[in-house]
Amino acid sequence: MSMTKLTLQIDGRSIETESGRTILEVCKENDITILTMCHLKGITDVGACRLCLVEIEGVSKLMSACTTKVADKMIIRTSTEKIKRYQRITTELFAAERNHVCSVCIANGHCELQKLAYDVKMDHIRYPYLFPQCEVDTSHPLYVLDHNRCIVCTRCVRVCAEVEGAYNWDVMNRGTNVRIISDFNTPWGESITCSDCGKCVEACPTGALWPKAVVQGQLNKAPEFISDLIEKRKMKL
Amino acid sequence: MDSTTKKQIVISPVTRIEGHAKITLQMDDRGQVTEARFHVNEFRGFEKFCEGRLYTEMPVISARICGICPVSHTISSVKACEMIQGVEPTYAGNLLRKLMHIGQNISSHALAFFHLSSPDFLLGYDSDPARRNILGLAEKYRDLAIRGIRLRKFGQEISERITGKKIHAMGIAPGGIAFPLTEENRKALLNWIPEAKETIHIGINVIKKFHDENEAMVKSFSPTPTLYLGTVGSGGQHELYDGKLRFVDEDGIILQDHVDPKRYLEFIAERSVNWSYLKMPYYKPYGFEKGIYRVGPLARLNVASRMKTPEAQAEFEQFKKINNSKPVHGTFYFHYARLIEALSGIEDAEIILNDKLITDKHVQHFARWNNHVGIGCSEAPRGTLFHHYVTENTGKIKKVNLLIATGQNNPAMNRSILDVAQQYIHGDQIEEGMLNRVESAIRCYDPCLSCSTHATGAMPFMVELVDSEGRILKTIAREN
Ligand code: SF4
Ligand code: SF4
Ligand code: FES
């Protein structure tokens, strides 16, 4: 695809870039902070979490920065009151939808959702907690999947398919009943596709996926590692 | 009122103990207290909601049962996990865990003695309840109050310097501990030892002076004999962290010795009562009433043959003289016992901090799930604490049983309340000083109610005199 140079404005700043890039990419290159959760550099963006919403002049609805491509003369705003309000709502809904008890969570202190809650200054939650009954899948010898802490960002699903090529993970059901599943909804430990590589665990932003070998305080996930891996694999040596 | 009418005095909640409780005193028409029931109104259900979690999460989850003794829960829990994995902790990891356990014990005993109990001794039982606390103490005995607060701080600093957190420490893991101790932190902790030791000695002098000045009261303060359970080392020495169980009877005869804590169910049975969430454990071979036993500082000193460290041993020898080498039953001696334990803890901490391997970097062994069942035990500040897990093949928790110190002391506590109430309450004259002595009997046990029922809500502090029909004859409300 041939790139064409284009000029756009983000938060009043005039920025030169090339066509084919997402608003998120351009913002990152220019040190403009955008909150994200389902985005992981290198894998396909799906626009699932709705945290990266931006305002584009002339477009009536908010658009997700991770899936919207830049266009010439676009005027973009990333931190209006409206956007902040939406981000806070989204974060609160994450917290209310499943059962997050940070104090006893393996990811406490190392969790992207927890960090997000600080970023949007979430001091309370205005929505009723759903308290769903969620399974903890401990069947895999090395890892645990705890649906109580899953925000259904699908980073695990995409990493498994696009980077490892194992296609173990998928998504089942809709709405609040949506669940990440292993193979055809069988226990993870019985998977015939999982290669035990642990990339999904590294990619997961919360305490939903974690290695059995660690306890609270020891979790050290490195999703950037996946992004680096993707870059390295592109290199032809 | 006809002559068979019974009256009830209800004290609720008992101030200055962790959690919430209510006492009902059943009185007959002659104003004699005939029965005492210590009600626990909380219910937290930890055993239930841990089901379905991975067993290695238990050390962190169970620490949240209690803000005073989280380390004991974590230690018992982590030992249960180690039994499941079939792994031993590393030398340095185990030492650091021991040190954390000592730190919590000192901190908890400091809270029990200096903050919660010493106002009674120093300001007097009948002094203004609004000032009979650590702040009131600070007005009259400033140095002592500050020392008490600092001693508690020392205990918490041990945790902070090892794990980075004062209260709900992270990093105690099956196979050891997650972080090594730095040389800087080792030195900083060692610097605390002289001050901490001095404070304990001051505390011991306070309690001994009180003993001397109030001999009759101290001796007669709920002296009903019970059996005792505690942990001892291979030579019968006092132990808090590792060791085997010893039961002794009221005369000090050893009933069971060197029992592996994993066998606790062979010797301890529990019965439920409809008026309390606390279960009533007893020594199985003796049946319910006869098998009432106590755990905690007094029990540990009553079962131990000796202390591990010289200064604590010297104090222990004096303690032993109280009842001619036989178990000391007087509930008031809990306080003395607590301070002797704190002294031993400080001496022990000094030894541990001088161990060459304390700063070793090899702190954790790693293993996987291997066995279905795990049982772990440690001596919490308030007594022997058991964690018992049953897991499924992959390590998912199927069943949890927590046998907690306050639960084990519960039957004896009721007996102690009855003892004291019978001695101090006659007729329906309810005076502040007398009621406080009933509460004080309970505080001797330093019960932690939130943990023992794995069980919120404060009730207004009231004392009610109730007849057998449930009619309130008299109500006294008191500020908390
Ligand atoms: S996953 Fe993150 S937000 Fe959820 S309980 Fe764990 S630490 Fe808290
Ligand atoms: S398991 Fe983790 S990575 Fe997968 S969808 Fe849930 S939160 Fe996202
Ligand atoms: S990061 Fe863009 S929608 Fe999730």
CATH topology-level fold name of the largest domain in chain A: Alpha-Beta Plaits
Kindly state the percentage of residues in helix of chain B: 40-55%
Name the shape of chain A in a single word. Answer: globular
Report the end-to-end length of chain A measured between terminal Cα atoms: 24 Å
* Strand elements of chain B, count: 16
Estimated radius of gyration of chain B:
22 Å
How many H/I helical runs of chain B?
15
Could you please describe the fold and organization of this structure?
The complex is a heterodimer of chains A (237) and B (480). Chain A is of the alpha+beta class and 237 residues long. Chain A has 6 helices and 10 strands; from the N terminus they run E-E-H-E-E-E-H-H-E-E-H-E-E-H-E-H. Chain A folds into 2 domains: 5-79, Ubiquitin-like (UB roll), CATH 3.10.20; 85-220, Alpha-Beta Plaits. Chain A has helices at 23-29, 81-97, 112-119, 155-164, 199-203, 223-234; strands at residues 5-10, 13-18, 53-56, 63-64, 75-77, 136-137, 143-146, 169-172, 179-182, 209-211. The model of chain A has no long low-confidence stretch (mean pLDDT 96). Chain B is of the alpha+beta class and 480 residues long. Chain B has a domain at 3-42 and 409-478. Helix content of chain B is 43%, strand content 20%. Chain B has 15 helices and 16 strands. In chain B, helix 7 packs antiparallel against helix 12 (334-353). The radius of gyration of chain B is 22 Å and the shape is globular. The A-B interface holds A 103-104, 106, 108-109, 135-136, 138-141, 144, 189, 212-213, 215-218 and B 52-54, 56-57, 59-61, 64, 163-164, 168, 170-174, 178-179, 366, 368-369, 392, 394-396. Bound molecules: iron/sulfur cluster (2 copies) and FE2/S2 (inorganic) cluster (FES).
